């Protein structure tokens, strides 16, 4: 019997910003139907129940049950991209893709560590290593890159980071940076790229091309 496999993607200005890696899983024997008006019909045991899927203007895909409650949202399960108003918290991680043009999970992570500080981590099959903040880097070339030298602090417990539409990123560990074209206007995305570099992009509406913007670190 032929087995069909589907990959669910969300596109933001013709660029994939989320893939099905974060979707809730179904047990073996479950069924999934998609009907009119964006309804998902989920059957874990042979009895179908209606779950409505809504794609919000923020780019957040939400699943709503019959009681009109949000039971799942893509903003809680990011892949490699953070959109404006999407939060990065304790148990969420940006994970790069393996290589350009694929959707396999890669080895580079952007996340809060156990000491409440945002780190860039290489998490490969044989070893795992923090590569920022650590020694001199492209982010803090004039310092040794330590948490305190960059004005950040582990003395917080909220583990919350968020970017806004203007291009500002703020974290509870005092990490803050602005896009070089800071201001309301262009669409933006913060992406953990396949090569391990965290990049902020702005959309050029005239060409439809995502343009890399430098990060202006606030110290």
UniProtKB/TrEMBL annotation:
Annotated keywords: Disulfide bond, Glycoprotein, Membrane, Signal, Transmembrane, Transmembrane helix
Pfam families named among the record's database cross-references: B_lectin
Cellular component aspect of the GO annotation: membrane
Signal peptide: 1-21
Domain Bulb-type lectin: 45-93
Membrane topology, as annotated: Single-pass membrane protein
Keyword Transmembrane on entry: yes
Compartment(s): Membrane
Transmembrane helix among keywords: yes
Protein name: Bulb-type lectin domain-containing protein
Species classification: Eukaryota, Viridiplantae, Streptophyta, Embryophyta, Tracheophyta
